[in-house]
Amino acid sequence: MSAEATNPVSEAGATGPDAPGRRRGRPRIDLRRLGRAALLGATAGPAIRDRLPDAIGHVAEAHRAHHPEADLAVLRRAYVLAESSHRGQFRKSGEPYITHPLAVTLILAELGAETTTLTAALLHDTVEDTEVTLDQVHTEFGDEVAYLVDGVTKLEKVDYGAAAEPETFRKMLVATGNDVRVMSIKLADRLHNMRTLGVMRPEKQVRIAKVTRDVLIPLAERLGVQALKTELEDLVFAILHPEEYEATRALIAANAGADDALAVIADQVSGLLREAGVGAEVLVRPRHFVSVHRVRLKRGDLRGSDFGRLLVLVGEDADCYAVLGELHTCFTPVVSEFKDFIAAPKFNLYQSLHTAVAAPDGAVAEVLIRTHRMHTVAEAGVVALGNPYSGQEATDQAPGGPAGEDGERVDPTRPGWLSRLLDWQQSAPDPDTFWTSLRADLAQDQEITVFRTDGGTPGSISLPVGATCVDAAYAQHGEAAHGCLGARVNGRLAPLSTVLQDGDTVQPLLAQDSTSGPSPQWLDHARTPAARIAITGWLQAHPEAAKIPAATPRPAAGVTADRRSDTRLRAELPGTGTPAVRPAGCCTPVPPDEITGFVVRGGSVTVHRTACASADTMRRLGRSPVTVHWGDTAACRVTLVAESFGRPRLLADLTEAIATEGAAVVAATVEPPSEQRVRHTYTLQLPDAAGLPALMRAMRDVPGVYDVSRARHPASPQP
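Request: output the structure for the sequence above.
Response:
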């Protein structure tokens, strides 16, 4: 966690809270002055035991702003231990090392972190860089602080070599799974290190910036800590894309008065809401550097109103929609820009209404509408929740405050991305696989929710956008999904490559053969690391499976159905005698289906079910229907399609079930297996049409058969 030295970019005012284009906040502390105060505080004698050391006065002020009743005694004790243990250590810029944990703690205090998190932040480098032991931290500050400090402590390169960094992140993520405050401290630690990265070698700056971009920024986004995410993005932007950064900085500097255009619209909005009786605070919110860069790429030349957005803060959720209604009534809304993240919050807790309106002069202003509480969570994310594991305290602070049966608050980050990450990381066989999979997983910044139909827990599964039935199968069944043959999506059979949509219901279909395994093609469909790691592991353990060529489709072999006239059917066709009448193969009507007929070549009549798609096609082509009806005989002929998993003796068991129900096989077709699935088509003669439902149930009861249906093959209109 060792921080480096002062970043010249940051010192020049190009980034950070006070940079052009960023919202103003509490002034950043002067690290050199802080270092002197730390040294003076260390030699202040007995007085330090009676009052808070001057060096952490900034932290105390920020902390009391969010938690007026906070007990600062524990912070004093943590500071004394941190300062004494780091005494004599200096950063590469020459500043006392204690300035780093103080700065990290101040970042978290500004975001509203509770006392336990701040205590751990002060001590976060002691176990790693000093003689202080974890047992000592545990004895003096308790279980929670010790857990947080241990969670952010790096693994030694002496023990892990090149794997130290990925394994440290693995350890940190596992700890985050039990307490998200671990990652909060890590993000604040990385932010201060990025602020002070300038004296490092350029190649090391680039390496750290890339890890920050690929891992830390996505984690900040998932935890909803936008205040940290946006500044990290700007700092990474300056290092990895210096030319674009300088162009953006110059563009912002050249439009220093751009806020005026938005200020005019803000005044109009304030007056409008005041007249409507809606209590609201309307602010101009300048865009940060990366945001301006993205807007410029999207829109080209920028107007003054493009350099910021309006932020409307209200008291209640209902007021958000009242503001939206007034804006859309009195301004021209840009419909494509409207998003409702209040009714459907993002998976990182973010809630807000987004819209854009056009002023009379044509200027377009983007508007964010949220409550004060939503704004706090949007900026600080999980940090604003306090301790999400301490029951009522966190329940009161959390949006909606969900609680489990035991009264403990349900952590909102666990059901989705974090639970999925914790599951697959256990299967990552080596640090390289974990590191590559982690970056790929974090690159997918949107999620969908699908629902299972098997009654399992949980009833819903969170997957990244673009996930397929393969991903759902492994999310539900783990390694048992190796035998997956397909799935039902929203009740309909679907191939494993089917891309799932938000709200779909998914039922993976598993083979009964335990030796079944995935094919290499599954890797083309898998989007989640859990699925890819499991498939890759099975293929490596069964190298022969990857060498088996795909089956070449063969023409289906079978017996052609009998095409003679069906004696059950009668057609009314004046002047032509008694034509031959036979059921159509596309819909195989049986009594008591409603039927209609059409004359085909040779003068015979083909009979369809009234609802048959082929019958509709013939009507559209102008073919006149013929009145047909069932005769007195109860016997019928029907074509059934059985979908099944491949297994030995399947055909014998199916024909035995058919014979047991008294049906005779007139024709049968078995198609070549595809992905271990087999399709059987039977044309059957039944002594009584009333026995058809029982026959279909008997066929479905045959092990391995998962669907039996009447044939509905599309048929071309006959001449």
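The chain has a mean pLDDT of 78.
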